Amino acid sequence: MKATITVLPGDGIGVEVTNQAMHVLSRISTQYGHDFTFHEALIGGIAIDKTGTSLPDETLAIAEQSDAILLGAVGGPKWSDPTAPVRPEQGLLKIRKHFELFANLRPVRAYPALSQHTPLRSELLENVDILFVRELTGGAYFGPRQEQGDGDSAYDTMLYSVPEVARVAHVAFRAAQGRRKQLTSVDKANVLASMRLWRRTVSEVHEDYGDVALDHVLVDACTMYLMTRPASFDVVLAENMFGDIITDEASVLAGSLGMLPSASIGAEKFGLYEPVHGSAPDIAGQGKANPTGTLLSAAMLLRYSLGLEAEAMALEQAVEAALASGARTADIAPRGGGFISTEEFTQTVIGAL
Ligand code: IPM
Ligand code: MG
Question: Based on the domain organization, do 73 and 6 belong to the same domain?
Fold first, then answer.
Protein backbone atom coordinates (compact mmCIF):
# COMPACT_ATOMS: atom_id res chain seq x y z
CA MET A 1 0.00 0.00 0.00
CA LYS A 2 0.96 3.65 -0.48
CA ALA A 3 1.08 5.70 2.70
CA THR A 4 2.35 9.11 3.72
CA ILE A 5 3.66 9.53 7.24
CA THR A 6 4.32 12.92 8.81
CA VAL A 7 7.36 12.74 11.06
CA LEU A 8 7.67 15.34 13.82
CA PRO A 9 11.00 14.68 15.56
CA GLY A 10 10.61 17.63 17.96
CA ASP A 11 13.32 18.14 20.56
CA GLY A 12 16.07 16.26 22.40
CA ILE A 13 16.06 12.50 21.90
CA GLY A 14 12.88 12.85 19.83
CA VAL A 15 15.18 13.41 16.85
CA GLU A 16 17.19 10.20 17.39
CA VAL A 17 14.29 7.89 18.09
CA THR A 18 12.12 9.03 15.17
CA ASN A 19 15.11 8.67 12.88
CA GLN A 20 15.51 5.04 13.92
CA ALA A 21 11.79 4.41 13.55
CA MET A 22 11.96 5.68 9.95
CA HIS A 23 14.73 3.15 9.22
CA VAL A 24 12.57 0.35 10.59
CA LEU A 25 9.44 1.48 8.75
CA SER A 26 11.42 1.75 5.49
CA ARG A 27 12.64 -1.79 5.97
CA ILE A 28 9.09 -3.03 6.57
CA SER A 29 7.91 -1.09 3.54
CA THR A 30 10.47 -2.84 1.31
CA GLN A 31 9.97 -6.23 2.89
CA TYR A 32 6.18 -6.21 2.47
CA GLY A 33 6.05 -4.35 -0.85
CA HIS A 34 4.59 -1.08 0.45
CA ASP A 35 5.41 2.47 -0.51
CA PHE A 36 5.85 4.71 2.54
CA THR A 37 6.73 8.38 2.11
CA PHE A 38 7.99 10.39 5.07
CA HIS A 39 7.47 14.15 5.42
CA GLU A 40 9.36 15.80 8.25
CA ALA A 41 8.01 18.94 9.89
CA LEU A 42 8.52 21.12 12.96
CA ILE A 43 6.93 20.99 16.39
CA GLY A 44 7.97 22.00 19.91
CA GLY A 45 11.03 24.00 20.94
CA ILE A 46 12.78 23.73 17.60
CA ALA A 47 9.65 25.13 15.95
CA ILE A 48 9.66 28.05 18.42
CA ASP A 49 13.30 28.77 17.55
CA LYS A 50 12.71 28.64 13.81
CA THR A 51 9.21 30.10 13.45
CA GLY A 52 8.21 31.66 16.79
CA THR A 53 5.39 29.18 17.34
CA SER A 54 5.38 25.63 18.72
CA LEU A 55 3.07 24.33 15.98
CA PRO A 56 3.51 26.15 12.65
CA ASP A 57 0.60 26.17 10.18
CA GLU A 58 2.89 24.47 7.69
CA THR A 59 3.18 21.46 10.01
CA LEU A 60 -0.60 21.17 10.22
CA ALA A 61 -0.87 21.47 6.43
CA ILE A 62 1.67 18.66 5.94
CA ALA A 63 -0.02 16.48 8.56
CA GLU A 64 -3.43 17.02 6.98
CA GLN A 65 -2.11 15.54 3.73
CA SER A 66 -0.86 12.40 5.46
CA ASP A 67 -2.21 9.11 6.81
CA ALA A 68 -0.59 9.33 10.25
CA ILE A 69 1.87 11.26 12.39
CA LEU A 70 4.92 9.84 14.12
CA LEU A 71 6.13 12.18 16.83
CA GLY A 72 9.32 12.15 18.94
CA ALA A 73 9.12 14.44 21.95
CA VAL A 74 8.88 18.15 22.73
CA GLY A 75 10.42 20.41 25.34
CA GLY A 76 13.72 21.14 27.03
CA PRO A 77 15.36 23.51 29.51
CA LYS A 78 15.82 26.16 26.84
CA TRP A 79 12.06 26.66 26.58
CA SER A 80 10.92 25.68 30.06
CA ASP A 81 10.42 29.12 31.62
CA PRO A 82 6.80 28.82 32.88
CA THR A 83 6.17 32.52 32.23
CA ALA A 84 7.18 32.30 28.56
CA PRO A 85 4.28 33.19 26.25
CA VAL A 86 5.01 30.25 23.93
CA ARG A 87 5.90 26.79 25.23
CA PRO A 88 6.73 23.58 23.35
CA GLU A 89 3.96 21.64 25.13
CA GLN A 90 1.32 23.95 23.64
CA GLY A 91 2.16 22.53 20.20
CA LEU A 92 1.45 19.02 21.39
CA LEU A 93 -1.90 19.94 22.96
CA LYS A 94 -2.86 21.94 19.87
CA ILE A 95 -2.13 19.14 17.42
CA ARG A 96 -4.12 16.64 19.52
CA LYS A 97 -7.06 19.03 19.58
CA HIS A 98 -6.76 20.03 15.92
CA PHE A 99 -7.24 16.45 14.77
CA GLU A 100 -9.76 15.60 17.56
CA LEU A 101 -7.54 12.77 18.77
CA PHE A 102 -9.64 12.15 21.84
CA ALA A 103 -8.39 8.71 22.86
CA ASN A 104 -4.83 8.02 23.91
CA LEU A 105 -3.92 4.34 24.09
CA ARG A 106 -0.96 3.49 26.31
CA PRO A 107 -0.21 -0.22 26.64
CA VAL A 108 2.00 -1.16 29.59
CA ARG A 109 3.55 -4.58 30.01
CA ALA A 110 6.05 -5.83 32.53
CA TYR A 111 9.05 -7.48 30.91
CA PRO A 112 10.41 -10.25 33.20
CA ALA A 113 13.93 -9.64 31.85
CA LEU A 114 13.77 -6.04 33.09
CA SER A 115 12.34 -6.73 36.54
CA GLN A 116 15.56 -5.60 38.22
CA HIS A 117 14.85 -2.12 36.86
CA THR A 118 11.63 -1.78 38.78
CA PRO A 119 11.41 -1.10 42.50
CA LEU A 120 8.61 -3.69 42.79
CA ARG A 121 9.06 -7.32 43.80
CA SER A 122 9.18 -9.49 40.70
CA GLU A 123 6.21 -11.68 41.73
CA LEU A 124 3.97 -8.60 41.60
CA LEU A 125 4.98 -8.04 37.98
CA GLU A 126 3.95 -11.45 36.71
CA ASN A 127 1.30 -11.19 33.96
CA VAL A 128 1.13 -7.40 34.06
CA ASP A 129 -0.47 -6.36 30.79
CA ILE A 130 -2.56 -3.19 30.97
CA LEU A 131 -4.04 -0.99 28.29
CA PHE A 132 -4.62 2.56 29.49
CA VAL A 133 -7.17 4.59 27.57
CA ARG A 134 -6.67 8.24 28.44
CA GLU A 135 -9.16 10.92 27.38
CA LEU A 136 -6.99 13.44 25.51
CA THR A 137 -8.89 16.51 24.38
CA GLY A 138 -11.03 17.48 27.36
CA GLY A 139 -10.92 18.12 31.10
CA ALA A 140 -8.73 20.66 32.82
CA TYR A 141 -6.22 20.72 29.94
CA PHE A 142 -8.76 22.39 27.68
CA GLY A 143 -11.40 23.86 30.01
CA PRO A 144 -11.92 27.57 30.68
CA ARG A 145 -8.98 29.11 32.52
CA GLN A 146 -7.61 32.35 33.76
CA GLU A 147 -3.93 32.81 34.37
CA GLN A 148 -3.09 36.45 33.81
CA GLY A 149 -5.51 38.73 35.67
CA ASP A 150 -4.13 40.40 38.80
CA GLY A 151 -1.61 37.60 39.35
CA ASP A 152 -3.12 36.74 42.72
CA SER A 153 -5.35 33.93 41.57
CA ALA A 154 -5.68 31.51 38.68
CA TYR A 155 -8.04 28.72 37.74
CA ASP A 156 -8.50 25.78 35.42
CA THR A 157 -11.81 24.05 34.84
CA MET A 158 -12.35 20.33 34.56
CA LEU A 159 -15.22 20.32 32.12
CA TYR A 160 -16.72 17.26 30.43
CA SER A 161 -19.84 16.67 28.35
CA VAL A 162 -21.69 13.36 28.06
CA PRO A 163 -20.74 12.86 24.36
CA GLU A 164 -17.07 13.54 25.16
CA VAL A 165 -17.03 10.87 27.86
CA ALA A 166 -19.16 8.43 25.86
CA ARG A 167 -16.94 8.42 22.78
CA VAL A 168 -13.78 7.58 24.71
CA ALA A 169 -15.68 5.03 26.82
CA HIS A 170 -16.71 3.25 23.61
CA VAL A 171 -13.04 3.03 22.59
CA ALA A 172 -12.18 1.51 25.99
CA PHE A 173 -15.06 -0.99 25.99
CA ARG A 174 -14.26 -2.14 22.45
CA ALA A 175 -10.61 -2.58 23.42
CA ALA A 176 -11.66 -4.62 26.45
CA GLN A 177 -13.79 -6.87 24.23
CA GLY A 178 -10.64 -7.77 22.30
CA ARG A 179 -8.71 -8.49 25.50
CA ARG A 180 -9.65 -9.95 28.91
CA LYS A 181 -13.06 -8.18 28.98
CA GLN A 182 -12.44 -6.18 32.11
CA LEU A 183 -12.66 -2.39 32.27
CA THR A 184 -11.68 -0.22 35.21
CA SER A 185 -12.91 3.36 34.99
CA VAL A 186 -10.96 5.88 37.07
CA ASP A 187 -12.59 9.00 38.51
CA LYS A 188 -12.98 11.17 41.58
CA ALA A 189 -16.76 10.93 41.80
CA ASN A 190 -16.74 11.37 45.57
CA VAL A 191 -15.61 15.00 45.16
CA LEU A 192 -15.89 16.35 41.60
CA ALA A 193 -19.12 17.02 39.70
CA SER A 194 -17.44 16.42 36.34
CA MET A 195 -16.32 13.02 37.62
CA ARG A 196 -19.85 12.10 38.72
CA LEU A 197 -20.93 12.81 35.14
CA TRP A 198 -17.98 10.67 34.00
CA ARG A 199 -19.03 7.71 36.16
CA ARG A 200 -22.70 7.95 35.18
CA THR A 201 -21.83 8.13 31.47
CA VAL A 202 -19.40 5.20 31.56
CA SER A 203 -22.09 3.13 33.31
CA GLU A 204 -24.61 4.07 30.60
CA VAL A 205 -22.21 3.12 27.79
CA HIS A 206 -21.62 -0.18 29.61
CA GLU A 207 -25.19 -1.19 28.71
CA ASP A 208 -23.94 -1.79 25.12
CA TYR A 209 -21.17 -4.09 26.31
CA GLY A 210 -22.74 -6.84 28.42
CA ASP A 211 -19.72 -9.11 27.89
CA VAL A 212 -17.32 -6.65 29.59
CA ALA A 213 -17.07 -6.42 33.41
CA LEU A 214 -16.89 -2.79 34.58
CA ASP A 215 -15.67 -1.42 37.86
CA HIS A 216 -15.22 2.16 39.01
CA VAL A 217 -12.17 3.10 41.07
CA LEU A 218 -11.29 6.43 42.65
CA VAL A 219 -8.06 7.84 41.26
CA ASP A 220 -6.25 8.00 44.60
CA ALA A 221 -7.01 4.34 45.31
CA CYS A 222 -6.08 3.47 41.73
CA THR A 223 -2.55 4.81 42.14
CA MET A 224 -2.15 2.46 45.09
CA TYR A 225 -3.64 -0.61 43.37
CA LEU A 226 -1.34 -0.06 40.38
CA MET A 227 1.57 -0.73 42.70
CA THR A 228 0.00 -3.37 44.97
CA ARG A 229 -1.87 -5.51 42.41
CA PRO A 230 -0.95 -4.36 38.87
CA ALA A 231 -1.73 -7.75 37.32
CA SER A 232 -5.41 -7.37 38.24
CA PHE A 233 -5.96 -4.65 35.60
CA ASP A 234 -6.92 -5.22 31.98
CA VAL A 235 -8.17 -1.96 30.40
CA VAL A 236 -8.05 1.23 32.49
CA LEU A 237 -10.05 4.28 31.35
CA ALA A 238 -9.23 7.71 32.77
CA GLU A 239 -9.90 11.37 32.12
CA ASN A 240 -7.09 13.49 30.66
CA MET A 241 -5.11 14.67 33.70
CA PHE A 242 -5.64 11.56 35.79
CA GLY A 243 -4.58 9.48 32.77
CA ASP A 244 -1.44 11.57 32.37
CA ILE A 245 -0.47 10.96 35.98
CA ILE A 246 -1.29 7.27 36.33
CA THR A 247 0.43 6.32 33.06
CA ASP A 248 3.70 7.82 34.25
CA GLU A 249 3.23 5.86 37.46
CA ALA A 250 2.49 2.68 35.50
CA SER A 251 5.63 3.10 33.38
CA VAL A 252 7.52 1.95 36.46
CA LEU A 253 5.99 -1.49 35.86
CA ALA A 254 7.66 -1.75 32.47
CA GLY A 255 11.13 -1.11 33.86
CA SER A 256 11.76 2.09 31.90
CA LEU A 257 9.75 4.96 30.49
CA GLY A 258 11.69 4.33 27.29
CA MET A 259 9.73 1.13 26.69
CA LEU A 260 6.28 2.66 26.37
CA PRO A 261 4.48 3.49 23.12
CA SER A 262 1.26 5.42 22.63
CA ALA A 263 -1.38 6.01 20.01
CA SER A 264 -3.67 9.02 19.94
CA ILE A 265 -6.69 8.27 17.86
CA GLY A 266 -9.99 9.85 16.91
CA ALA A 267 -13.08 8.83 15.02
CA GLU A 268 -11.21 8.15 11.76
CA LYS A 269 -8.14 6.06 10.97
CA PHE A 270 -5.80 9.03 11.20
CA GLY A 271 -3.72 9.04 14.37
CA LEU A 272 -0.67 10.41 16.12
CA TYR A 273 1.90 7.98 17.50
CA GLU A 274 4.53 8.88 20.03
CA PRO A 275 6.61 7.32 22.78
CA VAL A 276 5.41 8.17 26.27
CA HIS A 277 8.84 9.45 27.30
CA GLY A 278 9.89 13.08 26.96
CA SER A 279 12.80 14.78 25.20
CA ALA A 280 15.38 13.72 27.86
CA PRO A 281 17.74 16.64 27.21
CA ASP A 282 20.31 15.16 29.61
CA ILE A 283 21.10 12.29 27.22
CA ALA A 284 20.17 13.90 23.87
CA GLY A 285 22.62 13.39 21.02
CA GLN A 286 24.64 10.73 22.83
CA GLY A 287 23.14 7.61 21.27
CA LYS A 288 21.83 6.54 24.67
CA ALA A 289 18.11 6.81 24.00
CA ASN A 290 15.99 3.67 24.05
CA PRO A 291 14.09 3.56 20.72
CA THR A 292 11.68 0.83 21.93
CA GLY A 293 8.82 3.19 22.82
CA THR A 294 9.01 4.79 19.39
CA LEU A 295 9.37 1.49 17.52
CA LEU A 296 6.33 0.10 19.33
CA SER A 297 4.49 3.35 18.53
CA ALA A 298 5.36 2.78 14.87
CA ALA A 299 3.84 -0.70 15.21
CA MET A 300 0.65 0.89 16.56
CA LEU A 301 0.69 3.27 13.57
CA LEU A 302 0.86 0.31 11.20
CA ARG A 303 -2.03 -1.36 13.03
CA TYR A 304 -4.48 1.49 13.66
CA SER A 305 -3.87 4.02 10.86
CA LEU A 306 -2.70 1.75 8.04
CA GLY A 307 -4.58 -1.44 8.95
CA LEU A 308 -1.37 -3.48 8.53
CA GLU A 309 -1.81 -5.98 11.37
CA ALA A 310 0.73 -8.56 10.15
CA GLU A 311 3.41 -5.89 9.77
CA ALA A 312 2.58 -4.45 13.22
CA MET A 313 2.92 -7.87 14.81
CA ALA A 314 6.16 -8.58 12.97
CA LEU A 315 7.63 -5.36 14.33
CA GLU A 316 6.45 -6.07 17.88
CA GLN A 317 7.92 -9.56 17.69
CA ALA A 318 11.21 -8.21 16.34
CA VAL A 319 11.46 -5.81 19.31
CA GLU A 320 10.74 -8.73 21.67
CA ALA A 321 13.36 -10.85 19.93
CA ALA A 322 15.95 -8.08 20.24
CA LEU A 323 15.24 -7.80 23.98
CA ALA A 324 15.26 -11.57 24.38
CA SER A 325 18.66 -11.73 22.68
CA GLY A 326 19.98 -9.43 25.39
CA ALA A 327 20.08 -6.17 23.41
CA ARG A 328 20.01 -3.38 25.99
CA THR A 329 20.16 0.38 25.77
CA ALA A 330 21.61 2.27 28.73
CA ASP A 331 18.28 2.68 30.59
CA ILE A 332 17.62 -1.08 30.67
CA ALA A 333 21.17 -2.42 30.95
CA PRO A 334 21.95 -4.69 33.90
CA ARG A 335 23.72 -2.87 36.72
CA GLY A 336 27.36 -2.61 35.81
CA GLY A 337 26.67 -4.40 32.51
CA GLY A 338 27.27 -3.22 28.98
CA PHE A 339 24.81 -1.49 26.71
CA ILE A 340 24.49 -0.70 23.05
CA SER A 341 23.58 2.52 21.27
CA THR A 342 20.19 3.63 19.98
CA GLU A 343 21.30 2.77 16.46
CA GLU A 344 22.76 -0.63 17.37
CA PHE A 345 19.57 -1.55 19.18
CA THR A 346 17.55 -0.60 16.10
CA GLN A 347 19.85 -2.65 13.88
CA THR A 348 19.21 -5.66 16.13
CA VAL A 349 15.47 -5.12 15.67
CA ILE A 350 15.89 -4.82 11.90
CA GLY A 351 17.93 -8.00 11.93
CA ALA A 352 15.07 -9.79 13.68
CA LEU A 353 12.43 -8.61 11.21
C1 IPM B 1 2.16 13.32 28.00
C2 IPM B 1 2.86 14.59 28.43
C3 IPM B 1 2.05 15.79 27.96
C4 IPM B 1 0.69 15.73 28.64
C5 IPM B 1 2.73 17.15 28.19
C6 IPM B 1 4.11 17.21 27.59
C7 IPM B 1 1.87 18.27 27.67
O8 IPM B 1 3.06 14.60 29.80
O9 IPM B 1 1.90 13.16 26.80
O10 IPM B 1 1.85 12.50 28.86
O11 IPM B 1 0.55 16.15 29.78
O12 IPM B 1 -0.25 15.26 27.98
MG1 MG C 1 2.60 12.76 30.74
Answer: yes
Give SS3 for 104.
strand
Of ligand 1's listed atoms, the one at least distance from the Cα of 244 is 10
Decide the pairing of beta strands 155-156 and 182-187: unpaired
Question: Is-catalytic flag, 141?
Answer: yes
Q: What is the pLDDT of residue 151?
A: 78
Give the tens place of pLDDT for each residue, 261-274: 999 999 999 999 99
Indicate the pTM of the whole model: 0.95
Residue 304 annotated among the catalytic residues of the structure: no
Which tens digits make up the pLDDT trace of 192-242? 999 999 999 999 999 999 999 999 999 999 999 999 999 999 999 999 999
**Apex CA 131: angle with CA 67 and CA 120, to 5°?**
135
Among the bound ligands, the one closest to the CA of 135:
1
- Catalytic residue, from 67, 111, 141, 160: name it: 141
Residue 341 domain-assigned (yes or no) = yes
Residues 231, 348, single domain; the answer is no
Residue 229, domain CATH: 3.40.718.10
DSSP string covering 273-334, please?
E--SS---TTTTTTT----HHHHHHHHHHHHHTS--HHHHHHHHHHHHHHHHTT---GGGSP
Confidence at residue 10, expressed as pLDDT on a 0 to 100 scale: 98
Number of compact structural domains in the chain: 2
